[in-house]
Amino acid sequence: MDPSEVKLGPLRISTMVVTAHLGTTLNLQNLLDTFHEAAIPLTWPEEGFLKVEYKPILEPPPDASKDELHALKLRAKLQEKCIVGTCSRDELTKRKKSKNIFFNQSTLVVRRQCGTCPKGLPIFKEVNIKLFKNGGIQMTGIPTDSFAQDTLAWLAKQLQVFSKPVLDTPPAPHRYTIQLINSDYQVNGSIHREKLHEILVSEYNLFSSFESTIYQGCDTKYFYNEAAKDVPDSIEGVCPCGETLCTGTGDGRSLGSCKEITISPFHTGSIIITGARRFEQIEKAYTFINKILVKHSKEILKPFPVKQSKKIEA
């Protein structure tokens, strides 16, 4: 494909993971006991609580013997979590109950409005929220940063409406942090993954692997580090830390703290960029791989075949 024919789609944020703290401890048992007071039916066209999961703690008596404690631990392992309500994923997949849930954590599914359709009707999004007894929360299925912050404020308010107190003190949300941003976009042609892998390794010194029997994408690691510009002969996308210990799990602001971002181009022209914690990291990786696609388009991009319409003879 000629470089002038390459069309790169806009970057789409597919999902985000956000953590925060409500500024107070939680009584998760009270939430389970009174959840029905605020729960809404799955078919109800409004915002609200859909589902809660919690595994009640089995408290041992003060004078429990070793045998009694051991028996209690065995009971705890066999004990099933309590579930109230349902969500769209449950109804669509008919998932079986799982016992994998921590004792100090509850899983909440809420429905929030994330926009409106052209006809003016609301568009809803189901958000999975993990609530911890110490007040920590984790939200997944987040489409935008503003949506996450609005949902956090909404949650802090809604947890105060139950007849049994769920919050031990008035909430004061803080420590809001984006932990993960996943994104994707499309290019207007099929990608020769073997050739792209060869170019990424030989010309750009990137860590890349491609084995179609294991993973269909060209799994490429892009190391983001703002301090790389101060390192002589540093190469974009390559860890500049040298002998400094770097695991790729840092914030990407200093040597020894690279943020490893995964870029996965697929044969279909779809490209996934995952693992970022800030939007500028995603955008940097997006710009980087696009330059390579355009520069080497004649080698790695092939136009999609044009479908011929069938002629109907009279």
Query: How big is the Rg?
Result: 25 Å
Strand content: 25-35%
Query: What composes the largest sheet?
Result: 11 strands, antiparallel
- Tell me the distance between the termini: 38 Å
Low-confidence runs (pLDDT<50, min 5 residues)?
A: none
Order of helices and strands: EHEHEHEEEHEEHEEEEHHE
Helix content: 10-25%
SSE-based structural type: alpha+beta
Q: Care to describe what's here?
A:
This protein is α+β, with helices and mostly antiparallel strands and 314 residues long. It has two domains: 3-12 and 182-302, 2-Layer Sandwich (TATA-Binding Protein), CATH 3.30.310; 23-172, no CATH class. It is 23% helix and 31% strand. It has seven helices and 13 strands. The strands form two sheets. It has an eleven-stranded antiparallel sheet with strand order 3-2-4-5-6-1-7-12-11-10-9. A two-stranded antiparallel ribbon has the order 8-13. β11 and β12 form a beta hairpin. The radius of gyration is 25 Å and the shape is globular.
Quick overview of this protein structure:
By secondary structure, this protein is an alpha+beta fold. The protein has helices at residues 28-34, 66-78, 88-93, 145-158, 193-202, 279-295, 297-300; strands at residues 12-21, 48-54, 82-85, 105-116, 122-132, 136-142, 174-186, 190-191, 207-211, 215-224, 259-265, 270-276, 301-302. The chain has two domains: 3-12 and 182-302, TATA-Binding Protein, CATH 3.30.310.10; 23-172, no CATH class.
